[in-house]
Amino acid sequence: MKLRQVKPKDLLKALLKAGFVIKRKKGSHFFLEKDLIGEKRDTSISIHNEPLPKGTLKAIIKQSGLAEEDLIKILK
To answer: Its Gene Ontology molecular function terms (predicted)?
Structure first.
């Protein structure tokens, strides 16, 4: 399945469902973290009304350590 455009608020909700926690917030930026066995994943999301650019979305997915398919399932 193809990754669709995602609004930052929807991505934030999906990452929270995937086990991330909000580490801190500064302005419109949320900083998230997730402790995995032997490693820690950190990422940040800027909350605004426009969908995330494709490159930004892919970078956040890579930082989170999630597979695109898993994120697509969570976003449904």
So the answer is: endonuclease activity; hydrolase activity; mRNA binding
CA distance 10 to 75: 7
Beta-carbon neighbour count of residue 68 at 10 Å?
14
CATH number at residue 26: 3.30.920.30
Q: Which domain holds residue 53?
A: 8-75
What does DSSP assign to residue 33? E
User: What's the CA gap between 42 and 70, in Å, rounded?
Assistant: 18
Q: Is residue 1 part of a domain?
A: no
Domain count, the chain: 1
pLDDT one-digit tens code per residue, 1-37: 678 899 999 999 999 999 999 999 999 999 999 998 8
The pair of three-digit structure tokens given for residue 59, joined into one six-digit string: 């970078």
